[in-house]
Write a structure and sequence with these properties.
It is a single chain. The chain is α+β, with helices and mostly antiparallel strands. It folds into two domains: about 55 residues, no CATH class; about 120 residues, Sandwich (Immunoglobulin-like), CATH 2.60.40. The protein is about 25% helix and about 40% strand. It is built from four helices and eleven strands; from the N terminus they run αβββαββββββαββα. It has a five-stranded antiparallel sheet with strand order 1-2-3-7-6, with no helix packed on it. The chain has a four-stranded antiparallel sheet with strand order 5-4-8-9. Strands 10-11 form a two-stranded antiparallel ribbon. The chain starts with a helix and ends with a helix.
């Protein structure tokens, strides 16, 4: 009976972990802001989902600007854009690569390092959010594009502590074992 309850607990734990991962994968990587007669769409690129952002040494955002009345060529995107973490620290853009350019329709990739001046990651496992800020574009003081980063679930933290092991069995199958179960088997 005890083994059956342990099995049910492990099965439940696996469901919670994979449900959490599915939620993170479905997270929207695109944000939008309209104001000052300019529509801005920003998409976080080169990541599969928000869980993988912490592993990147650089962060890239595809920026689309659209208007019918503002000269978009007047703005140096790498000068008016910065990253902001949840502590309020700000990080300058490294570059702007133009994809298409006209005075009313503009797009490009803005790139940031994910390493601070000391070589430490800006976005870490404890980071809760990251913001791309575009300042003073068409009279709008700050356009803030915010991504809330998925936290680690209690189950994932237990896995990291080593209280459980996961063994890949192939073909979408895996085995999760708690240290308690391992001790029982060894007795």
């Amino acid at each position: 009976m005890r083994k059956f309850i342990s099995f049910l607990f492990i099965l439940f734990l696996a469901g919670v972990i994979f449900n959490s991962l599915s939620f993170a994968i479905a997270e929207d990587l695109t944000k939008k802001h309209s104001g000052g007669n300019v529509d801005v769409t920003v998409t976080l690129t080169d990541v599969e989902d928000l869980t993988s952002i912490r592993d990147k040494k650089e962060l890239k955002f595809r920026v689309y600007l659209n208007t019918h009345s503002v000269d978009l060529l007047a703005y140096q995107m790498d000068k008016i854009s910065f990253l902001r973490d949840e502590k309020g620290n700000e990080y300058k853009a490294e570059s702007w690569k133009t994809l298409s350019e006209s005075s009313h329709h503009r797009s490009g990739i803005i790139k940031f390092s994910n390493l601070d001046g000391k070589g430490d990651f800006i976005i870490t496992s404890s980071s809760k959010s990251i913001e791309l800020v575009i300042k003073e574009l068409a009279g709008i003081k700050e356009r803030v594009f915010r991504w809330d980063l998925p936290g680690r679930t209690a189950e994932a933290k237990e896995l990291e502590k080593g209280n459980f092991t996961i063994e890949w069995l192939g073909h979408s199958s895996f085995l999760i074992t708690s240290k308690e179960d391992i001790r029982e088997v060894k007795k």
